[in-house]
Structure to design on (676 residues):
């Protein structure tokens, strides 16, 4: 259920007006227009952005939600679609009061931006500014509760008040500078390290354009095109319906960034199609959840956390985009190979060609979306300012949508686009402003500077041990926080320690993003898997375990690129190519071992061969020559012995064990590949 029941025509106009003003402010800043002589200090600009989008949060998100809505929203990562309101909810009087208060206090700070800077209001502010600081602190926490859920809000609250008693904690590593309450409120509201810290600075400059681009791609028909194009390419092959689900969900994930909303958007189309083609309900739900959770790691438009990396790592987004290509390819390759093995083992056929859309026809109708992605990627490499790029591509998309005769994109569709843009931006900016309180608490006490040193001393310079500890921490935080919130926290606390032990900075930051996102498909939370299970009418935990197995590469690849930076393109071209080829073989081995089927040779694998192939696949991700040789040997021996000692089973027999070499019937010699 969407928020249209909450947004009446009046509030719809309000959302559009606030969104247009907020986006124009962002464009004025990134294009250096200085409209009407408006040249803003950074802090004044950020306050004005908050004044535009915090009120929208109170319009589109009710005070209370249904249990399902609360659960989904609490785990959203780049929420392209805000969660649905409780049935029958509407904008209440207290929502209006909070809207006015949030806008008023942000405007007050915006108009006093120069005084805040020049007179150090962060530490010595007049009484009205101190009162306003307390108000903004409380408003941001309520905004975070409505957009990110209760769990992350409690965490933000604890860390935001942490400087009040940091000096008195019994644990030495957590002791830090202590503040009195008024000064702490001033630091949070007017300092450059808390609400107005790096996360919101990145969101207000880089993220705005890219988020609107994702919404524009959806509203001009991009989701339908990518689904139809995937159907025309993959639908005819065995397991085609599932392969289509992976391709379309990956494309949709680039637009939405939220695993749960992606499942709820594409799942109603893909899951029934998979079930009709022979996939079990559990497996179909697992495929959809696993594919949907890959959106935040898929270039060229990755999740919010990837854009936050720009500020934390200090590199252009294009460098992050390049670094993420190989890991994302390996992730989806692993899913495809497992699907192919499952389909071969079960004898599943593809969709009849007559029922599929034609690739040429799909391209003729969907060429603007291909052009948009190519143009976006090209301009990111060509232009000096990556913050300006998405606006040019958005303009191209909207102009083409208006001019095309076979597409209806009039005033109603344009206003729908503006409303959804406002929802998207308000939710993301609300979450990031709240997460800034966590950063502010750690920075104000000085603890963020000492934690990395203490972590290194604790693990004794053991890179693998700190990576394992980091993976567990990322997973736990990912269960209760959005990926961006977990990333911001760990980018301050853990990543510096990992980098100090010699891990490449880009690899260390991507490691956090990957492991923070696995909670979407991993029990006991697995919200994306649970959402898919509801659509598939399958047991939630079983679906989550199926998704976990299908997404196994996501658990292994981060360790690979943390130990071998060539996998994130941080090495010489020859070493990158070698690492890429070896990792493809590794993913092939892991997929074959997990599915119990040698993909390509169409042979079921004996348990011992599955174990050796899995070990060999893992070794191929490591940078040492000995591990690569050993991994190749184990994979080659496992595949060769499987090929020699087993025969192809009868298609559709569903045989789970190997067929003896001498015991094949004439029918069993029929190639499962004939189902392709």
């Amino acid at each position: 259920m969407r928020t249209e029941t909450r947004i009446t025509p009046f509030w719809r106009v309000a959302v559009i007006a606030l969104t247009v003003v907020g986006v124009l402010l962002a464009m004025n800043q990134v294009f250096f227009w200085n409209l009407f002589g408006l040249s803003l200090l950074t802090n004044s600009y950020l306050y004005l952005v908050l004044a535009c989008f915090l009120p929208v949060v109170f319009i589109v998100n009710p005070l209370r939600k249904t249990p399902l809505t609360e659960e989904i929203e609490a785990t959203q990562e780049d929420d392209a679609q805000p969660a649905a309101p409780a049935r029958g909810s509407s904008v209440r009087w207290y929502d209006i009061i909070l809207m006015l208060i949030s806008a008023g206090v942000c405007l007050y700070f915006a108009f006093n931006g120069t005084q805040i800077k020049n007179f150090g209001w962060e530490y010595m502010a007049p009484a009205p500014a101190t009162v306003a600081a307390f108000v903004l602190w409380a408003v941001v926490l309520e905004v975070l509760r409505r957009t990110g859920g209760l769990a992350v809000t409690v965490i933000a609250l604890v860390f935001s008040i942490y400087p009040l008693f940091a000096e008195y904690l019994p644990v030495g590593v957590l002791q830090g500078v202590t503040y009195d309450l008024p000064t702490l409120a001033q630091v949070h509201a007017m300092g450059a390290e808390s609400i107005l810290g790096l996360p919101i600075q990145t969101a207000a400059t880089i993220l705005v354009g890219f988020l609107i681009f994702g919404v524009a791609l959806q509203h001009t028909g991009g989701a339908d095109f990518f689904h139809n194009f995937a159907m025309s390419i993959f639908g005819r092959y065995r397991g085609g319906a599932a392969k289509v689900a992976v391709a379309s969900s990956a494309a949709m994930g680039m637009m939405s960034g939220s695993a749960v909303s992606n499942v709820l958007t594409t799942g109603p189309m893909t899951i029934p199609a998979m079930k009709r083609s022979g996939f079990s309900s559990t497996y179909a739900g697992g495929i959809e959840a696993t594919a949907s959770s890959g959106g935040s790691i898929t270039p060229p438009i990755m999740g919010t956390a990837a854009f936050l990396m720009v500020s934390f790592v200090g590199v252009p987004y294009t460098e992050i985009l390049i670094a993420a290509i190989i890991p994302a390819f390996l992730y989806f390759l692993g899913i495809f190979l497992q699907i192919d093995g499952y389909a071969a083992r079960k004898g599943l056929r593809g969709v009849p060609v007559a029922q599929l859309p034609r690739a040429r026809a799909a391209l003729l109708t969907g060429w603007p979306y291909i052009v948009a992605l190519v143009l976006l990627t090209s301009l990111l490499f060509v232009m000096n300012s990556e913050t300006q790029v998405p606006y040019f591509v958005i303009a191209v998309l909207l102009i083409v949508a208006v001019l095309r005769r076979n597409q209806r994109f009039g005033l109603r569709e344009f206003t729908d686009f503006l409303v959804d843009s406002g929802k998207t931006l308000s939710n993301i900016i609300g979450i990031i402003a709240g997460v800034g309180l966590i950063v502010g608490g750690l920075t104000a006490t000085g603890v963020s500077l000492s934690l990395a040193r203490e972590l290194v001393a604790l693990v004794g310079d053991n890179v693998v041990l700190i990576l394992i500890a980091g993976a567990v921490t990322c997973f736990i935080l990912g269960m209760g926080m959005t990926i961006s919130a977990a990333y911001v926290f760990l980018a301050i606390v853990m990543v510096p320690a990992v980098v100090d032990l010699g891990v490449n900075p880009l690899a260390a930051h991507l490691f956090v993003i990957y492991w923070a996102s696995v909670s979407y498909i991993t029990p006991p939370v697995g919200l994306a898997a649970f959402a898919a299970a509801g659509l598939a009418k399958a047991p939630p935990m079983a679906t989550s375990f199926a998704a976990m197995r299908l997404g196994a590469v996501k658990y292994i690849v981060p360790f690979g690129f943390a130990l071998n930076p060539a996998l994130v393109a941080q090495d010489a071209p020859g070493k990158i190519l070698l690492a890429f080829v070896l990792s493809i073989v590794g993913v092939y081995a892991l997929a074959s071992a997990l599915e119990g089927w040698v993909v390509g040779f169409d042979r079921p694998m004996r348990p011992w061969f599955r174990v050796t192939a899995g070990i060999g696949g893992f070794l191929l991700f490591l940078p040492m020559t000995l591990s690569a040789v050993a991994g190749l040997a184990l994979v080659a021996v496992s595949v060769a012995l499987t090929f020699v000692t087993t025969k192809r089973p009868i298609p559709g027999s569903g045989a789970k064990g190997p067929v003896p070499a001498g015991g094949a019937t004439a029918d069993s010699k029929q190639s499962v590949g004939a189902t392709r």
About this structure: The chain is about 70% helix and 0% strand. Confidence is low (pLDDT under 50) at residues 67-88, 652-676.
